[in-house]
């Protein structure tokens, strides 16, 4: 094994200062889901659309209204209660966390 070469203190200091200049690791950017802009105020246009489209759905729940009509969750719950009072939809299952309705068919 050949003997190691002697390095001067100045050369060691220069080598130490040169090291560690590597840039820091960049974390990969995750794809973020865009925040949905759902309606929180019921205007006449949304009400007309609810009254026209919702009675044609076979399965009606808060999540269906939020997804298809771009309503906020609380607004969808209010709309479902109103439609039930009007007799446009009828409840299938009512629970505190999930209300399921279907269209009211004339018997």
TrEMBL record:
Keywords: Ribonucleoprotein, Ribosomal protein. It comes from the Eukaryota. InterPro entries: Ribosomal_eS25 (IPR004977). The keyword Ribosomal protein applies. Coiled coil: none annotated. Residues 21-35 have a biased composition (Basic residues). GO terms for cellular component: ribonucleoprotein complex; ribosome. Pfam families: Ribosomal_S25. The keyword Ribosomal protein applies. Residues 1-35 are annotated as: Disordered. Residues 8-20 have a biased composition (Low complexity). Belongs to the eukaryotic ribosomal protein eS25 family. This is 40S ribosomal protein S25.
